Amino acid sequence: MEALPAAKELENGIYGQMPIQIGCCNGHNKKLNAVEYHRDSEVDIAVDDLILILGKQQDIEEDHTYNTSRMEARGIQVRDCPSKRHQSGHGAGGSEGP
Of 42, 53, 55, 72, which sees the most CB atoms within 10 A? Predict the structure, then answer.
């Protein structure tokens, strides 16, 4: 994916020419059994509605643990997208959750 022209567009346009990594995540999850940590911003491009579970770096304890009860869930609805319009015959619509 990093060899695609879109990767260069993201690298130059969003990350100010800093090197980036691109990956793909798909499937349906039924439980939270892992948490990942990023020191940098992350751009998520969703094709379906999703829930992001977010936490603050400031909440990481001195012993490098994290109390997951401090995390917050954010429901995100995919906005009107040309590919969704093509597949379903109408716009997806929607707005960000709380």
Answer: 55
pTM for the whole structure: 0.58
**Among 18, 24, 22, which residue's Cα sits nearest to residue 7?**
22
Torsion of CA 37, 43, 46, 50, to 10 degrees: 40
DSSP 35-64: ----SS------SS-EEEEE--GGG--TTS
3-state secondary structure of 19: coil
What whole-number distance in Å separates Cα of residue 91 and Cα of residue 96? 16
| Measured distance CA(78)–CA(59) in Å, rounded | 29
The residue ranking higher by pLDDT, 85 or 20, is: 20
Mean pLDDT value of segment 88-97: 40
